[in-house]
Structures are given as structure tokens and as C-alpha cells.
Specification:
Length: 434
Amino acid sequence: MNAPHKPKTFHVKSFGCQMNVYDGERMAELMAAQGMTATDDANAADLVVLNTCHIREKATEKVYSDIGRLRKHGNDPMIAVAGCVAQAEGEEIVRRAKVDVVVGPQAYHNLPELVSKAARGESALDTDMPLASKFGALPARRRVAPGAFLTVQEGCDKFCTYCVVPYTRGAEVSRPFDAIVDEAKALVDAGAREITLLGQNVNAWDDEAGTGLHGLIAALDKIPDLARIRYTTSHPNDMRDGLIRAHAEVEKLMPFLHLPVQAGSDRVLKAMNRSHTRDSYLKILDRVRAARPDIALSGDFIVGFPHETEAEFAETLSLVDAVGYAQCFSFKYSPRPGTPAADMTDGFIPGEVMDDRLQRLQAALNRDQAAFNAATLGKTCQVLIERKGKLPGQMLGKSPWLQSVHLMTDAAIGDLVEVEIVRADPNSLAGVAI
Ligand code: 5AD
Ligand code: SF4
């Protein structure tokens, strides 16, 4: 709390989703534009920005233990808490952890000003959700990795009963078409070969002309040096025909779809306010597979939602069997303060039951992931080289289906290499350049 001087070095640490990774990059660009220097070592920085996640309890607790650790081992840094914990807890963080700056996800363009305020010893808290876009106030993109993120949509109006996002990120807002296309071009000029369009409900992206996400993808398809397009994360109800068709028609659109379902029982889906059913979800996947037969499917699951019975959980397992996912995320239900499900205390599932369900679900998902990887054995595909591997001459990259592939090659980061898959492990593939 005693950071009377303006910081010269900074470190940004992002927790949680890919949108936080994107926000973290943009905050780093903001600080650099102020003349501050980035450092990889949080303990050596004058300013540490913790870009937090509030989606589950553990994520929140991590922030407080990180603050404790920084105070003990760090350079007596100025501490800024950004992200969804900042939005949800506001003043409470200042009280509990005595941090210098608190800035919500819709206000981080004001970070330099807040840091200056804190350096003058003034209170620096901004959790406003202004209608004017923060994006216009951010500096231009300069140097980026071959796989870059681009936030096109933020917030959520779906109000699933377990989820804090509608409260921390606010209402669904789409960035304007031209701003996105311009940023995509800047990313490609700065070295991106693949762009992942991000949004809490990215497939709800739209503009006044009704362009829809598929129209945006069609525009990005025309950027000559952009090789790959992805998008995440989507809601089943926003999976429109045009987007499904794009999977058949746009070569640069990678054969991968992350479409969370959360549970396999209609009773549970209704209690979650998901507004789709098991059957309507499966029908969407059928149409996507008809458009792009080799598509890799992904999803999110919550086990132990309040009142979930063993029979209802079994419906989640049978849905997994029916789909055959390539890779998934699965979580134990975590009550989030202020959400409707957090009040369903009479239906809370005991910890050991949750653990058992999560274990069984993950065993099924791991089995399917291993099978999906095994099915790529002997196939040839393009791999986008992203970084060096552990061994000399080894490089790591991603297949079109988002699997990690390692190979020996003298190709450079950012190259696309034609590869034959020669080994398939549950979590990665090995390839030979051809
Ligand atoms: N408890 C557990 N998992 C949650 N998710 C969102 N809210 C909760 C919660 N309260 C999961 C959902 C969502 C993913 C991003 O996080 O599966 O799709
Ligand atoms: Fe949360 Fe549901 Fe919105 Fe996803 S769709 S961000 S789970 S409220």
C-alpha cells in the first residue's frame, strides 16, 4: 500500500478465460505506451496487475493468496486488481487486501490514470461500465504471437442461474464491424497468422446490418496473410444457419467448435436457465457435423448443480457418449454470490458426491479425447508453429483441430508446416514434416 512513486516496471498476471488473456495484453500495451517497462518477474516489478477471474470460488481465493505472496516476496509493489473479481468485489478488495488500484473489465482503459492517482496516494477504484467503448481508448496492436486473440463481443444476457458473467461483464455488447476488421489487419501486420475471435457469447456477435458472426468471418477470410480463424465461446441458441454453413464454406475457419452444454438432463438444463434442451443441442451438433464432418467438438460441463440426482448425472454421461468430444472442460458446481443458484442451498450436493461425479465424467472425457487423438494417427495436416519445444530442434504447434503437435523442424515460429501425424498421446501428437 506504500507505493508513493510512479512505477517504472510492471507485470501483468492473468487468470481464467482467454478474454482475460486478451485484456491482459491490452493492459500491458497501455502501460508500455506510458513508458513503463514490462518484466516477467512479478517479484521484481514496481506495479503488479492481477487480472482476475470470478467464475469459480478457487479462482477468487487465488487472488488473495497471490496478493499475500507479493507482499512477502515482492518489491513492495503497487498492486492493481483488475478483471471480474475487481468488478464483483470492488471496495471489499481494498478493505480486505489493501490494494492500491481496483479496476473492472470495462474500465481498464483508465488504468494509467488510476495508477497515477494511486502514486499520489489517492484512492483509485473504477468499476464503471460506461456505454462508450474502452476499445477506442486503447493503443494500437504492435507485436503479437502467431495465434492472437481478438475480443469482438463482451458480456452476456443469458443469465444462466449459476453464472456471474452477466453481473461482472455486463450486458451483451458487440464491437463495431470496422473496428474489428481494422484490429484484425493490425494483428496480421504484427505477426498473427491465426486469429481467435473472443466473446462470452461470441456467436451472438452482430451489427445493425445483421452481418452476424459468419459475415464477420467472411470479411476476415479476405485478409491475405491471415491463415486461420477460430471463435470461442458460443451458446447453442445463437448457433445460426449462416455460421454452420461457414464451417462448410470458409477454408480458413478451423474445424473446431466449442459449444458448452453444461448438463445432459433437461430438468437440470431448465433449472440452469440454459434455454436449450439435450435434444436441441444434439440436433445442432448433427447439423454442424453435416457441414464439416471432421469437426472437433468441445464443451463445458458442470457437475453437482443443486438437486442434481444420480440419474440426472447419468444423462450427462450418456450425452458425452452420444457426442464423442475431442476435448472438454468440466467443473464442480461452485455457488457464486448474487446468482440465483447460490440460494438453492437445500439442494447443494455434498463434496464427496461432486468429487465422484467429476471423476467419472473426466474419465469419460479423457477416454474420448484419447480416441479423437488416436483417430488422427497417419493423417496429414497443417501445423501452425507457435513456440520452441524442450528438445533442440523441436517445435510445438497446433493442428487444425486444436491439438498440440510437436515435431523436429527448422521451420520458424509463425510458419505453417505440412505434417504427418506419427504418434498420438492422450494430450498431444507427434508429427513429421513432409
Ligand atoms: N460453477 C462451476 N462452473 C461454472 N461455470 C460457470 N459458472 C460456474 C459455476 N458457478 C463454468 C461453465 C462455463 C465455464 C466458463 O465455467 O461450464 O461454461
Ligand atoms: Fe454465463 Fe450462461 Fe452467459 Fe455463458 S451463457 S456467460 S454460462 S450466463
